[in-house]
């Protein structure tokens, strides 16, 4: 078996000339990985909306704000730690640190402050179950995924995907103050969705990962092996995506939409498997984002009597 441990890359981030004076507000926003944050916030909001019980609208808004801030803090720390490989990869080399617009210690301080503040605010204003889950999600993303798994194993996304699966569980805990089997089901939906989602990206960005010596599955195990593993996870996703119906988190409207969307996701996966063209992997990656958004949007609609009555009638 090939050694997948990754040594320090030959390009040193410290060789970049930093000028923090030119950092703009947009650079701090970029540090927070807004593309990731939008999905994190939305799935967290879905967990809050479908949880049994009620929460004061103001506290609900605080909970969602904390999830957003925590996601941004984790993203900033990730960019601080990965500044060396970000300088190599074409899709990341324009980020504030490798581009020289922000010093690493500024990004690290920004990320740590956001992470601590968000968890403390969640605990004090909402409840400590949600606050501890938020801290756990951030810690898992930073220490387990970013600092340990990402550069050491091709299973980095499989295990590290747990960090991105926490938001609906956090939203659920914000309302109920507990972790239940229903919230774990929502967690598992995102956890099982993550490998085919991210490996689709890795397939058409494998050159970047190889250059940065990041052991993504296509780089270590090859493209064909990756495609088969994507198919396995996509098939395993089916019963989990439909599990909210079984656990009465959602009704048949959600079940029907989830089944149709999942069948199309599977179709795209088969197209990727049967073709060497990157355009199919890119299409699957882009649809995977829409797919998760649709699942949680329909979950919210399905649990909203007012909206469902409009649809029905």
From TrEMBL:
Domain of life: Bacteria
Pathway: Porphyrin-containing compound metabolism; heme O biosynthesis; heme O from protoheme: step 1/1
Membrane topology of the entry: Multi-pass membrane protein
Keywords: Cell membrane, Heme biosynthesis, Membrane, Transferase, Transmembrane, Transmembrane helix
EC supergroup of this enzyme: transferase
Keyword Transferase among record annotations: yes
Protein family membership: Belongs to the UbiA prenyltransferase family. Protoheme IX farnesyltransferase subfamily.
NCBIfam families: cyoE_ctaB, PRK04375.1-2
Summary of the function given for this chain in its UniProt record: Converts heme B (protoheme IX) to heme O by substitution of the vinyl group on carbon 2 of heme B porphyrin ring with a hydroxyethyl farnesyl side group.
Name of the protein in its database record: Protoheme IX farnesyltransferase
UniProt lineage: Bacteria, Pseudomonadati, Pseudomonadota, Alphaproteobacteria, Rhodospirillales
């Amino acid at each position: 078996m090939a050694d997948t441990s990754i040594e320090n890359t030959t390009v040193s981030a410290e060789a970049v000339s930093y000028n923090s004076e030119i950092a703009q507000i947009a650079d701090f926003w970029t540090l927070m990985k807004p593309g990731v944050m939008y999905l994190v916030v939305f799935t967290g909001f879905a967990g809050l909306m479908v949880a049994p019980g009620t929460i004061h609208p103001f506290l609900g808004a605080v909970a969602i704000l904390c999830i957003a801030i925590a996601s941004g803090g984790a993203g900033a720390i990730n960019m601080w730690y990965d500044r060396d490989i970000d300088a190599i990869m074409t899709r990341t080399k324009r980020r504030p640190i490798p581009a020289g617009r922000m010093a690493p210690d500024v990004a690290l301080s920004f990320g740590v402050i956001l992470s601590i503040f968000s968890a403390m605010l969640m605990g004090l204003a909402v409840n400590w179950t949600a606050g501890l889950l938020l801290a756990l999600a951030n810690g898992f993303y930073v220490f387990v995924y970013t600092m340990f798994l990402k550069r050491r194993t091709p299973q980095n996304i499989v295990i590290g995907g747990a960090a991105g699966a926490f938001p609906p569980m956090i939203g659920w805990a914000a309302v109920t103050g507990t972790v239940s089997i229903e919230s774990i089901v929502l967690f598992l939906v995102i956890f099982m969705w993550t490998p085919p989602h991210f490996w689709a990206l890795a397939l058409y960005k494998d050159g970047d990962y190889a250059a940065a010596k990041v052991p993504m599955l296509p780089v270590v195990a090859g493209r064909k092996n990756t495609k088969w593993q994507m198919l396995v996870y996509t098939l395993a996703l089916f019963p989990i995506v439909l599990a909210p119906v079984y656990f009465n988190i959602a009704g048949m409207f959600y079940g029907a939409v989830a089944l149709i969307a999942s069948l199309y996701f599977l179709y795209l996966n088969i197209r990727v498997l049967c073709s060497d063209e990157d355009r199919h992997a890119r299409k699957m990656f882009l649809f995977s984002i829409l797919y998760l958004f649709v699942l949680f949007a329909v979950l919210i609609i399905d649990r909203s009597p007012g909206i469902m009555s409009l649809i029905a009638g």
